[in-house]
Write a structure and sequence with these properties.
The protein has 7 helices and 8 strands; from the N terminus they run αααααββαββββαββ. With 199 residues, it is an alpha+beta fold. The chain folds into 2 domains: 51 residues; 120 residues, no CATH class.
Length: 199
């Protein structure tokens, strides 16, 4: 009977060894993974800030276009062809070049030197509204017309005078047939010019 007792005492320490084998080494790994994920979230939230900064670029580019439009309108002269002498009549001319020759001949008859530049662009617009006086119902009354040019640069001095002459040739001008230039009289969408007529 005394020999069986020592065998029971050797079996009791074995379970204690299995309990000590449970480490907490997995916890640091979770903490490390959580800490590593946090910088990625911070980087993704800061990325949209660069998109907000790029939205301000179109407004800066739009300002020169608006300023350029205002500058173009302000460049139109208030007086055009004021130094040119010409007599409007019923005579028709087939082209601007024919009228240029007629103007030079007119100056020669007056004994004056013709110094105008017919090829100079005097109105850098594709069209204008024109007002003038003509005899209607036994008296002078206002008349209007619209002049257009196919030249992308605008009206040259020769073409402008030619189109004015051809337009007014359809009306009775009586003694108000001396051309003394154009004077601007407003116009928002399209410039409006009034023919200065002398007698």
């Amino acid at each position: 009977m005394a020999e069986g007792k020592p065998a029971k005492t050797t079996k009791k320490p074995a379970p204690k060894a299995t309990k000590a084998a449970k480490p907490t080494a997995a916890k640091p790994a979770k903490a490390a993974s959580q800490k590593a994920a946090k910088p990625a979230k911070a980087a993704s939230t800061t990325a949209p800030k660069t998109v907000v900064a790029s939205k301000a670029a179109p407004s800066a580019a739009a300002e020169p276009a608006a300023n350029g439009t205002k500058a173009k309108k302000a460049a139109l002269p208030d007086r055009v062809l004021t130094g040119l002498s010409w007599s409007l009549s019923k005579q028709r001319y087939g082209a601007a070049a024919e009228l240029v020759s007629a103007v030079r001949a007119y100056y020669a008859e007056l004994g004056r030197e013709c110094s105008w530049q017919p090829d100079e662009v005097v109105l850098p617009v594709p069209s204008i509204d024109l007002e003038f006086l003509a005899v209607q119902d036994n008296g002078y009354d206002g008349a209007a017309a619209r002049l257009n040019t196919p030249d992308p640069r605008g009206f040259t001095a020769a073409e402008l005078l030619w189109r004015i002459h051809e337009t007014l040739a359809c009306y009775e001008l009586s003694d108000k047939h001396f051309f003394e230039g154009l004077a601007r009289d407003g116009g928002d969408e399209r410039p409006l010019y009034r023919v200065r007529q002398g007698s």
